[in-house]
Each structure stands twice: as structure tokens, then as C-alpha cells.
């Protein structure tokens, strides 16, 4: 299987990261591994731009990271405002519900964002304990600007929780400067490590909120009482144990975090931005229309585009896969068969995106769509040359 994996996670991983995965598994209390774990926690602070944050690395997926945020910060009947731009906003609402929160969900129409005015009106209406933001909703490709929302949250003394599963290490995030209380992700997207790690960064205020709880955390596995001491021990380079860490994944994580920081976060965000814009310039030349209602609301980490009129989506996906390019179908139940998604994050290169455009052009021509071969690639090239 040598197909180019261009779904919005898991992504194509650096060979060096995959090699790190395959090294001999060591003890989780071996000095070398303790150093790797401790270093990974420190590198996370640089990537999240959160020198004062408390990082957590836990076995699980992005959903566990969301679950942990809810389990530790929320108590029965706390009010939570969920700002939703798609499927993953609704998931946060369900998770908050499960921990007894009284949630209010502000749902944007597909492709749009919730206005700051609407959010502020709601914050004035009730004293919310926390609000959640999906930075990039992977179901729609919509990106929200977390900065002004975090500011509003501070103004109304409410915690801000950012689902950064499809954004951390791909989109701009300045956790401390923006005042975000929780920024969480999974390993398999722009962090560039195979699936299996939940990564979280809690602000001092979030940690204080957890410490001041009146009731116990309603999940044994997710409880920070178990994990906080473990993270502290690894940072202090001491052996410790709660649940056996996924040794190979963490060795791979340290490798990937170093690769990310070698590029530098600012450069990395800029690269994602230029590639995303050039890619969409190319797609537009094929007559494709996008789910997000504007360029400003479009993610740099993936693109969600409608199939052209008269084109059968499942035929398109299967033909693309036969050309060794794998992209993802739709995720929103109401629109599932009318759009597809292409991930472009992590170590993605212009060559990868040219391969996608080329395979897509041939596929659309085979399906009878009236386009000119090579035009989208030319547009991509020109846009990239212009922006670089
Ligand atoms: N939030 C967002 C924005 C996501 O894209 C995803 C995964 N696609 C999740 C949460 C859930 O992550 P996981 O599938 O790793 O549980």
C-alpha cells in the first residue's frame, strides 16, 4: 500500500518518525525514556506557545483529550457554552452533557462561523463556567479565530477550551498570549505522529479550577489526580507509574516535536497557509466550490469542497484511490454525499498537492466533467511562486 494519504488525519508521517516507532521498546522507567518523555512535555510548551501551561501526554485519541477537559473542569450543573461549526462542536456538547453540564450550543450554519456579537450576548445572559471552541472543524473545513473569543471568555470570567485536534502545529496558536485555558489535540494530525496520543495544555487557571473542585472527577482514567503527578515526575526526570505509557509512540512524538521546532512554528504556520491557498486556487480552476463561506473562515490544515454538479462522489473517491491518492468523503450527515475533504498538514509538500490536483483532474475528465488538463496545476504553481 503506497497510496498518498491525503485525508485530514491520520496524515503522511515523516520516515524518521516511523523509524522511531520501530525502535526496541524500553521500560517506561528507563532513564533514556524518562528523558524523552520529559523533553516532549517541554517541547509541547514551545509549540503551544504556553510557557506557563501544564502539559499532559496520555494514551488515547483526540476524543479522550476532549473527555479529559470536560471530566476535570466541569461539575454537575455547570453552565457550558459550546460554539459549534460542525460535527466536532456537537461532539463537545455531547461530552459536556455526559459530565452533567448544562450546555447551550450556538450552532453556525454550514460553512459559517458564530459572530462575536452572538457569543457576547450569550455570555452576558448567563454566568458560564466554560466555553468550547472548535478551532478547525474537520467536518466542514471551517476555521474560527480563537483570539477574540478567548478575550471575551476572560471578560466574562469563563474558561476557554480550544479543540485544536485539527489545528495544533498547523494553525497559529498563542495559548498564553491569547489567554486560552485549555488547548487539546491528538497525535495523528499536524503533530505528525500515528494515532494514539491525547495531548493537552492546561493554563494555571484551568489547573486551579480543577484543584478547587467540590466533587470528585467522574472518570477514573481521565482524572488529572492520576496524571498530574506522572507528568510532574517525568519533567523532574523521576520514574513514576500510573498507566503504562505507549513507549514507542512517545519516542515518535519527541522525534516529531523536534522536527516541528526545527522548522519553527511561525514558518510552519506560514507554509500551511501558502499551501492551502495555492491548493484552493488550483481546485477553483476545476470549478470546485468550498464549504467555508469565505477564505478568512477556511482552514489551512484541510479543504472541504463540494463535488461538481453531476459528479458521483463515491465514483470520484474510488477513481482517485485507484490513482493512489486517498482523500476523505464528507462527514456531516446532511451533506455526506455532496462533498469531500483533503488534508494538507504536517509534512505536506507542494509535490503532494500537485499529485492530488493531477489525479483529481484526470478523474474529473474521466467522469465527463468539462475542464482543461493542467490548468489547476498551473494555477497552483503560479500562486505558490507568487506567495513565496
Ligand atoms: N476534534 C476534531 C476537530 C477532530 O478533527 C477530531 C478527529 N477527526 C476529533 C476532535 C476527535 O479526535 P479522534 O478521532 O482522535 O478521537
From TrEMBL:
<dbReference type="GO" id="GO:0008453">
    <property type="term" value="F:alanine-glyoxylate transaminase activity"/>
</dbReference>
<protein>
    <submittedName>
        <fullName>Alanine--glyoxylate aminotransferase family protein</fullName>
    </submittedName>
</protein>
<comment type="similarity">
    <text>Belongs to the class-V pyridoxal-phosphate-dependent aminotransferase family.</text>
</comment>
<feature type="modified residue" description="N6-(pyridoxal phosphate)lysine">
    <location>
        <position position="189"/>
    </location>
</feature>
<keyword id="KW-0032">Aminotransferase</keyword>
<dbReference type="GO" id="GO:0004760">
    <property type="term" value="F:L-serine-pyruvate transaminase activity"/>
</dbReference>
<feature type="binding site">
    <location>
        <position position="341"/>
    </location>
    <ligand>
        <name>substrate</name>
    </ligand>
</feature>
<dbReference type="InterPro" id="IPR015421">
    <property type="entry name" value="PyrdxlP-dep_Trfase_major"/>
</dbReference>
<keyword id="KW-0808">Transferase</keyword>
<keyword id="KW-0663">Pyridoxal phosphate</keyword>
<dbReference type="InterPro" id="IPR000192">
    <property type="entry name" value="Aminotrans_V_dom"/>
</dbReference>
<dbReference type="InterPro" id="IPR024169">
    <property type="entry name" value="SP_NH2Trfase/AEP_transaminase"/>
</dbReference>
<dbReference type="GO" id="GO:0019265">
    <property type="term" value="P:glycine biosynthetic process, by transamination of glyoxylate"/>
</dbReference>
<dbReference type="Pfam" id="PF00266">
    <property type="entry name" value="Aminotran_5"/>
</dbReference>
<dbReference type="InterPro" id="IPR020578">
    <property type="entry name" value="Aminotrans_V_PyrdxlP_BS"/>
</dbReference>
<feature type="domain" description="Aminotransferase class V">
    <location>
        <begin position="26"/>
        <end position="330"/>
    </location>
</feature>
<dbReference type="InterPro" id="IPR015422">
    <property type="entry name" value="PyrdxlP-dep_Trfase_small"/>
</dbReference>
<dbReference type="InterPro" id="IPR015424">
    <property type="entry name" value="PyrdxlP-dep_Trfase"/>
</dbReference>
Amino acid at each position: 500500500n503506497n497510496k498518498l494519504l491525503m485525508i485530514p488525519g491520520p496524515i503522511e508521517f515523516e520516515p524518521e518518525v516511523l523509524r522511531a516507532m520501530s525502535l526496541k521498546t524500553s521500560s517506561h522507567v528507563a532513564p533514556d525514556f524518562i528523558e524523552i518523555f520529559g523533553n516532549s512535555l517541554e517541547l509541547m510548551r514551545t509549540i503551544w506557545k504556553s510557557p506557563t501551561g501544564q502539559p499532559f501526554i496520555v494514551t488515547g485519541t483526540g476524543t479522550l483529550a476532549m473527555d479529559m477537559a470536560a471530566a476535570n473542569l466541569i461539575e454537575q450543573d455547570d453552565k457550558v457554552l459550546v460554539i459549534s461549526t460542525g460535527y466536532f462542536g456537537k461532539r463537545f456538547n455531547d461530552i459536556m452533557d455526559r459530565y452533567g453540564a448544562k450546555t447551550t450550543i450556538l450552532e453556525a450554519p454550514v460553512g459559517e462561523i458564530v459572530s462575536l456579537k452572538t457569543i457576547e450576548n450569550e455570555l452576558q445572559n448567563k454566568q458560564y463556567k466554560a466555553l468550547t471552541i472548535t478551532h478547525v472543524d474537520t467536518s466542514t473545513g471551517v476555521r474560527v479565530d480563537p483570539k477574540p473569543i478567548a478575550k471575551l471568555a476572560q471578560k466574562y470570567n469563563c474558561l476557554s477550551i480550544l479543540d485544536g485536534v485539527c489545528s495544533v502545529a498547523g494553525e497559529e496558536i498563542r495559548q498564553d498570549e491569547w489567554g486560552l485555558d485549555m488547548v487539546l489535540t491528538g497525535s495523528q494530525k499536524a503533530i505528525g505522529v500515528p494515532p494514539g496520543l491525547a495531548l493537552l495544555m492546561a493554563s494555571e487557571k484551568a489547573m486551579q479550577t480543577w484543584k478547587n473542585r467540590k466533587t470528585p472527577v467522574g472518570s477514573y482514567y481521565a482524572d488529572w489526580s492520576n496524571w498530574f503527578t506522572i507528568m510532574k515526575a517525568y519533567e523532574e526526570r523521576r520514574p513514576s507509574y500510573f498507566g503504562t505509557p505507549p513507549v514507542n509512540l512517545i519516542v515518535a512524538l519527541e522525534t516529531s516535536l523536534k522536527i516541528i521546532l526545527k522548522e519553527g512554528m511561525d514558518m510552519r504556520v506560514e507554509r500551511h497557509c501558502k499551501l492551502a491557498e495555492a491548493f484552493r486556487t488550483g481546485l477553483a480552476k476545476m470549478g470546485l466550490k468550498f464549504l467555508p463561506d469565505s477564505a478568512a473562515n477556511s482552514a489551512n490544515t484541510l479543504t472541504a469542497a463540494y463535488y461538481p454538479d453531476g459528479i458521483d462522489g463515491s465514483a470520484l473517491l474510488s477513481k482517485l484511490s485507484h490513482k493512489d491518492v486517498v482523500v476523505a468523503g464528507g462527514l456531516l450527515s446532511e451533506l455526506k454525499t455532496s462533498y469531500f475533504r483533503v488534508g494538507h498538514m504536517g509534512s505536506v509538500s507542494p509535490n503532494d498537492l500537485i499529485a492530488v490536483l493531477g489525479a483529481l483532474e484526470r478523474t474529473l475528465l474521466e467522469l465527463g466533467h468539462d475542464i482543461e488538463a493542467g490548468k489547476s496545476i498551473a494555477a497552483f504553481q503560479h500562486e505558490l511562486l507568487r506567495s513565496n
